[in-house]
Design brief:
The complex is a heterodimer of chains A (about 280) and B (about 450).
Chain A: E1 2-11, E2 14-20, H1 22-25, E3 33-37, E4 45-53, E5 58-64, H2 68-75, E6 81-82, E7 84-89, E8 100-106, H3 110-122, E9 126-133, H4 142-147, E10 151-156, E11 163-164, H5 167-176, E12 183-187, H6 190-203, E13 207-210, E14 226-229, E15 232-235, H7 236-239, E16 242-244, H8 250-256, H9 261-279
Parallel strand pairs in A: 8-9, 8-12, 9-10, 10-11, 12-13
Antiparallel strand pairs in A: 1-2, 1-6, 2-5, 3-4, 3-7, 4-5, 13-16, 14-15
Helix pairs in contact in A: 2-9, 5-6, 6-8
Chain B: H1 16-19, H2 32-39, H3 49-52, H4 60-68, H5 72-82, H6 86-92, H7 99-102, H8 114-128, E1 142-146, H9 150-161, E2 165-169, H10 178-181, H11 190-202, E3 206-208, H12 219-224, E4 230-233, E5 239-240, E6 253-255, H13 256-265, E7 282-286, H14 290-301, E8 305-310, H15 321-329, E9 333-336, E10 338-346, E11 349-363, E12 369-382, E13 385-388, E14 392-393, E15 427-429, H16 432-435, H17 440-460
Parallel strand pairs in B: 1-2, 1-4, 2-3, 4-15, 6-13, 7-8, 7-13, 8-9
Antiparallel strand pairs in B: 5-14, 10-11, 11-12
Helix pairs in contact in B: 2-4, 2-8, 4-5, 5-8, 6-8, 9-17, 13-14
The chains are: A alpha/beta (about 280), B alpha/beta (about 450).
Chain lengths: ~280, ~450
């Protein structure tokens, strides 16, 4: 069992948890992920490592409440235990030799982008952070990104905070102003990453996108997480989760992400009804 | 006077139209009377041809004589000398191409039902035996076993009985490997697998789940930091193969591994399961092995109309004869001499499988007649779900993180056949990780072979 040592609400739908998992903390690196089950009979869900502390033996996860399992996860509190917590899985973010990087995060994807920015910053790389949210109340990790970058642009769709606009607007502005990046690293909703990659392709800037498809085992066994990269089928769990963004077939990835949508909706409603009953 | 009946005693089973709607075990096993009657069909041949057909050389005539004498525990003791998992192998071994293929009674009529008798003896023992496994005195040597499938369980059992301090590392959240994620409940009840694992725990074996060796810890760390003297790699052949044809990434296309893992390990067939599975209406399963039969029969039980698409003919189906028989009885259709060339879809979802019609020509290197395309002949099979069951290959996680571990080009670990020793001192391997997808009994045999070699190595160190 894996104990929840800390739980912190970051915004109305996004929560941070620090989990006691020394064997995972030993090896975890930015860009990797874990798979957890909340309880016996629970679903296996992948979540990217948001932070880790090797000495304390803890791994931090940040999740958005989107489905039945994250809903259930969110009912757990400090002191409660997770049934399973396995990792670190996937390949770490490639950071060697990078001198100047733009890290582009969107929504809860910023939780995954942050450790990457932090590591690059610590390695002496010049980091520009572009982070986007729908509105002010959904902003997370603003101070953290500020500390891990030399330039930060915070965007909101509705202009309720930071600059009104999309992350692609900000990135374009930076590039147009003459900033020259070795690489752009983007993590967020598929549609956002698709447009970030389309933009950087115009400027011929290498771009890495972090994919988060449906998975079962996370070790290469099920193939459920497969996607097309450069015309070849790749497994996100063992070949990724990060790939060359200019080679990813985002439309296929978006379609595959919808496989269980009707089921998810039902399961989500069921668990919401259960929680409502418990409240009564 | 032996029983000269030309046919085997039928094994009672659930009716096809009942069982194709539930996940309970299909075959119900012999009664004592049926077992004794079947046992008397054995001629107790001096030269024991059946034993030569058994990958682990169980003394088959000897255990069958004990059954005929109604000494069922005595029969179990004889099997247990050679096999660690009789209740499993009695159910899943391809007896018709192993022991029973060599049975003299099979020359005229049906061979003795050796597999059914093995199953009966193991089930009898599991039901009646009250002996508690005693934890042997520890000899202080630490052994790590990677993977809790048939080879790992067999290796762990033999070493634990000798007093070794054995730890099994399993990547998933539940131990059992292919026996729990791959083979369905209706063919191998999970309670049987659990009993084997509980038996090992009673011997003092530790089972660490959620440990992905090569990710969470490496083999070198196990040996250098965690103090394991020897390691056995029984990580299986877990990577699914795809055909690399257009449309394979459409929604509704599964690897058999994913489809079966969702059903068997995650229990997605149950109404209240947290893990989803697509309940297809028209399911096409591509392949002809045991895994294809399992996937097809699972899909049937979820309410689908199921067709197996296979590029050779029925005679070449690699699945166990009994599984093919059961699948047919349950209403699975077979579309033979057809090979998918593309999968068509609408709105991102599968709509039909476009197949090339094949014909058989000369035998290929596997000895089976080689299927070749019949020029200009194509057929379309309607489907909203396609399950690719065309084989698996070894997982590269261990190979890529263990320096000096030699592997074949296709990924199988290179070992010395007599001992299971790899190119690394103290590191042994067996099962599908070495051979590629094969049988439970071969994996179990490899686990036992390695256990003996590991014991000798540690005692002489």
């Amino acid at each position: 069992m894996y104990k929840i040592l800390k739980k912190k609400v970051l915004n109305p739908t996004v929560t941070l948890m620090e989990i006691d998992a020394p064997m995972v903390a030993r090896k975890a690196e930015p860009g990797q992920f874990i798979i957890l089950r909340t309880d016996e009979g629970g679903e296996r869900i992948p979540l990217t490592v948001a932070d880790y502390d090797r000495e304390k033996g803890t791994v931090t996860i940040i999740y958005q409440i989107v489905g039945a399992t994250t809903e259930k996860l969110n009912t757990l509190n400090e002191g409660d235990c997770l049934q399973d917590f396995v990792g670190p899985l996937g390949r770490p973010t490639h950071t060697d030799g990078l001198k100047k990087v733009a890290v582009v995060g969107g929504g809860v994807g910023c939780a995954i982008a942050y450790p990457v920015a932090k590591k690059l910053h610590a390695l002496g790389c010049e980091v520009h952070a572009v982070i986007g949210f729908r509105s002010k109340d959904l902003v997370i990790l603003e101070d953290e990104f500020k500390a891990a970058s030399s330039k930060m642009m915070l965007m909101t769709d509705d202009g309720s905070y930071g600059t009104k606009g999309l992350v692609t607007d900000a990135l374009k502005e930076l590039i147009e102003s003459g900033e020259e990046y070795d690489e752009v690293i983007t993590i967020g909703p598929l549609i956002m990453m698709k447009f970030v990659c389309a933009l950087t392709k115009q400027y011929n800037i290498k771009t890495i996108a972090s994919m988060n498809p449906i998975m079962v085992d996370g070790t290469g066994m099920c193939g459920g997480c497969r996607l097309t990269v450069g015309g070849k089928t790749k497994f996100a769990c063992v070949d990724g989760p990060e790939f060359d963004g200019h080679e990813i077939d985002f439309d296929e990835a978006m379609a595959r992400g919808k496989t269980y949508q009707p089921f998810e909706r039902d399961a989500h409603e069921k668990i919401c009804n259960l929680l409502k009953m418990e409240v009564k | 006077m032996p029983n000269m009946s030309l046919v085997k005693n039928e094994m009672p089973a659930q009716e096809p139209e009942v069982r194709n709607k539930n996940f309970l075990e299909v075959a119900l096993g012999y009664t004592e009377e049926q077992a004794v009657d079947e046992a008397t069909r054995c001629l107790n041949c001096k030269h024991k041809p059946c034993v030569t057909g058994c990958p682990v050389q169980i003394d088959i005539p000897a255990f069958i004589s004990k059954v005929a004498e109604r000494d069922f525990e005595g029969a179990y003791e004889i099997i247990a000398k050679s096999s660690s998992l009789p209740a499993v192998c009695g159910r899943v071994c391809p007896q018709e191409s192993q022991c029973e293929a060599k049975c003299v009674r099979g020359i005229k009529g049906e061979p003795v039902a050796i597999g059914r008798l093995e199953r009966f003896v193991a089930d009898y023992h599991n039901l009646h035996s009250s002996e508690k496994a005693e934890k042997p005195v520890s000899n202080g040597h630490k052994v790590a076993i990677i993977g809790s499938g048939p080879s790992g369980l067999a290796c762990a059992g033999d070493l634990a009985k000798k007093g070794y301090d054995v730890t099994i590392f399993e990547a998933l959240h539940l131990a059992g490997g292919v026996l729990v994620y791959g083979i369905p409940e209706f063919r191998l009840p999970k309670s049987i697998v659990q009993k084997e694992i509980d038996g090992l725990k009673a011997l003092g074996v530790k089972v660490e789940t959620n440990m992905v060796i090569g990710k969470t810890v490496s083999i070198d760390e196990l040996m250098e930091e965690f103090g394991f003297e020897t390691v056995f790699i029984g990580s299986g052949a877990g990577l699914p193969r795809f055909m690399n044809i257009p449309g394979e990434n459409l929604n509704g296309v599964y690897s058999a591994n994913e489809f079966l893992t969702r059903i068997n390990l995650m229990k997605a067939y149950k109404e209240d399961a947290a893990t989803p599975i697509q309940h297809g209406k028209k399911v096409v399963v591509v392949g002809g092995g045991n895994v294809a039969m399992d996937a097809a029969r699972c899909a049937k039980r979820l309410g689908a109309d199921v067709t197996i698409v296979y590029r050779r003919t029925e005679a070449e189906l690699p699945a166990r004869a009994e599984e093919v028989e059961h699948a047919k009885e349950e209403g699975i259709k077979f579309c033979l001499l057809t090979n998918p060339v593309s999968i068509d879809g609408t709105d991102g979802w599968v709509s039909n499988v476009h197949c090339q019609v094949m014909e058989l020509s000369e035998p290929d290197e596997s000895g089976r007649a080689k299927p070749v395309p019949k020029e200009g002949c194509f057929v379309d099979v309607e489907a909203d779900c396609v399950i690719m069951s065309i084989g698996t290959s070894p997982n590269p996680l261990i190979k890529s993180t263990t320096e000096g571990l030699e592997t074949q080009k296709w990924g199988g670990i290179v070992v010395d056949e007599a001992t299971g020793l790899t190119s690394r001192e103290g590191v042994y391997a067996g099962g599908d990780a070495v051979t590629g997808a094969a049988t439970v009994i071969l994996a179990m045999g490899a686990g036992k072979t390695a256990a003996a070699a590991m014991d000798a190595y540690m005692q002489n160190k």
